[in-house]
Amino acid sequence: MPESHYRICPLCEACCGLEVKTEGAKVISIRGADQDVFSHGYLCPKGVSLKDLHEDPDRLRTPLIKRDGKFVEASWDEAFAEIEKRLLPIWREKGPDSVALTIGNPAAHKVSLLAYTPRLVRALGTRNAYSASTLDQMPKQLSAGLMFGHWLSIPLPDIERCDYLLILGGNPMISNGSLWTVPDYRGKAKAMRARGGRIVVVDPRRSETAAAADEHLAIRPGGDALLLAGIAHTLFDENLVKLGRLEGHVNGLEEARAAVLPFAPEVTAAGCGIPAVTQRRIAREIAAAPHAAVYGRIGTCTTRFGTVNSWLVDLINALTGNLDREGGAMFAKAAAFAPNTQGKPGSGKGITTGRRRSRVSGAPEVFGELPITVMAEEMETPGEGQIKALITIASNPVLSAPGGPRIAKALDSLDFMLSMDIYVNETSRHADVILPGLSPLEDLHYDVAFPQLSHRNHARFSGPVFDAPAGTPQEWQTILRLCALLEGRGLDVDVAQLDDEAIESDVRRFAGDQTPAVLAALKPWRGPERLIDLQLRVGPYGDQFGRKPEGINLAKVKAASTVEGGGIDLGALTARIPEILRTPSGKIELAPPSVLADLAEVKTEPAPEFSLIGRRDTRSGNSWMHNLPVLAKGPDRCTLLVNPGDADRLGLSEFAKIKSAVGELIARVERSADMSPGVVSLPHGWGHDLDGVVLGVARERPGVNMNELLDDTARDPLSGNAVLSGVAVEIAPV
Ligand SMILES: Nc1nc2c(c(=O)[nH]1)N[C@H]1C(S)=C(S)[C@@H](COP(=O)(O)OP(=O)(O)OC[C@H]3O[C@@H](n4cnc5c(=O)[nH]c(N)nc54)[C@H](O)[C@@H]3O)O[C@H]1N2
Ligand SMILES: Nc1nc2c(c(=O)[nH]1)N[C@H]1C(S)=C(S)[C@@H](COP(=O)(O)OP(=O)(O)OC[C@H]3O[C@@H](n4cnc5c(=O)[nH]c(N)nc54)[C@H](O)[C@@H]3O)O[C@H]1N2
Ligand code: SF4
Ligand SMILES: [Mo]
Predict the structure, then answer these.
(1) How does pLDDT run across 341-388, given as a tens digit for each residue?
(2) Are residues 693 and 581 in the same domain?
(3) pTM for this entry
(4) Residues with CB under 6 A from ligand 3
(5) With a 6 A CB cut-off, is 622 part of the ligand 1 pocket?
(6) 4Fe-4S Mo/W bis-MGD-type domain location, by residue (predicted)?
């Protein structure tokens, strides 16, 4: 008899609820769960690929230890013994900074990793903590922290009530949304336009999202700060500033006005490629719309002025009265794990950066991390604090970060490397020990991060579809064992006891002498489930351990999270200012001094002959899903998109050579009228033909690694985020 299971997809930020049909140990089908209160049956081809991922023969099921340059299978005890023998002496003798840690994108989608890695970072005590955040959204987190007081208070479009949406550097038709959990963007955008709404997309390429919008503005790569400052200038210049409900809740309005004063559209037009009349019209349209939202994503973050861009987006939202208003850019209120629902509402400590600096380049720490683009130099450069060992957790920097070949070489120079990963891939092939995680279908799921970024509030949980193979730990258990090793407790530890200790220390922090009572109330849960129950119960919708009996807890969320129930809907977004603010002033800081100082650096740059930008494909997930047959089939996707006029002028045929200041690649040419002249596009996450990579399907069509063309010293100086777009290249026929 086939059985139906409810499972939330962990493969992108849309967090779709799926119905997984199984018979015995086989997956028969995967489809969208129609009753899901949040995703209503939506799924993309990646959701279906969970079957292939589960069955992938290359997916690791046992630990590997490298012996004489070759990986051999090992038991979990052998693997931990190897880690104790080789990692601990380095850490003890060379100091905590000698061991670095890098955390990758899939960790954001796993409670087992996201809720437990902070413990490992603390146990290591290293300043060398890195993550994909500095390849991605750190600028937005920094601007949110500076403006609203917390790194995770990020406004997002309330699309279901919005009349005017300006999207810059995001392609949710393909990415399914980012820092904006919005399953079925396509359907929601269509509905918005059907009720008379207008969508304008700013992108150097006529992306799929631009093609489905009312208007596409083909900006020069890297031109967003000029365009956004031109729009903000116009709002002041034409007396369109209307704070509305935010009146009395902002600081720095006059400083913001003065800062954008030099950026009249007539001045910025040449540098961003958007005519002054258009910039002024867009400003007026945003100001006039009943409900408007401005949203900027990857294309605005992964540039030299990522933080300035991210700030300007929310400045415009605020100036037009659209911040924190229905149909504008609003804040989610997550049921659990949301720091902006905890502590005293209305004001707080705000954020600080630069509490320490990287040893070689002096890059400031931001949100507890250093830029991932300094990791290689910290390995290469001798001296006190040099990185000698590395732990990677769901992270593939050899493909996903600029300067992959340099990183690969630096990894080979380490004394020890541990990868928590599910494949032997471009990065983990360098490891001495690999500890695998479970297939998503063997793991429970509760989203820690994305309900904080969702277009509607919800609480959903899914249990494992299949039992984990006997003896295979869940990843949170692996992390607790690693912490115990660092605490000197050796190999022979009781993981259940480690779990009890971990939760007790969490509870004690807020419950004080009520700790035993709270712990008793959290029975019968263990592991992440106990954490989730705790967080749900003390959260904004929680039962407060019985003080609000109608409130939610894990048992209630579980009971509702079935194929038929689809989770708990917690309603449309509601206004949260001033309650959400954690700035010391208790106001929205419209003019953070560090950002204004960087805005003053924005100027018109001469255009290179060609600018390289990235792109994402429906059937990719960054660097690691190319081994799944259902996604790998079809046309070659790692192609260089070139405007047909440019291709003719250069005489390009099948292949082209792409040369940057730091590297050179040959890629297949695909002519595309969607590309602006002078702009070419390559996707990231390819280049699977490196020695030692065990990805049978991906190796058949490995593609090339576009990050070999990117300069790892190019960063947004405020957030440390890497520059991944708008890179000058030369193109030549092959
Ligand atoms: N040029 C360019 N480069 C980019 C980008 C771009 O737009 N352009 N985008 C950047 C962005 S936004 C991001 S987020 C980064 C992503 O870069 P990374 O953070 O490196 O993430 P992935 O490339 O997704 O690689 C994920 C790794 O996790 C492993 N993995 C998958 N599932 C699990 C699991 O359940 N457990 C464990 N332990 N491991 C698992 C995979 O095998 C793989 O090694 O790439 C960045 N790189
Ligand atoms: N299918 C699929 N979905 C994914 C991923 C994936 O790899 N594949 N990755 C996931 C991850 S980790 C993330 S972070 C999200 C990212 O989600 P999105 O931010 O939607 O990412 P992209 O699809 O890369 O869209 C970025 C857009 O910015 C444009 N762009 C490039 N340079 C500039 C510029 O200078 N200015 C402007 N205005 N635009 C520019 C690009 O042409 C592109 O269309 O997607 C997630 N979803
Ligand atoms: S859109 Fe994202 S969450 Fe939904 S099925 Fe596709 S990969 Fe999974
Ligand atoms: Mo990302």
Answers:
(1) 999 999 999 999 999 999 999 999 999 999 999 999 999 999 999 999
(2) no
(3) 0.98
(4) 9, 11-12, 14-16, 43-44, 46-47, 176, 183
(5) yes
(6) 2-58
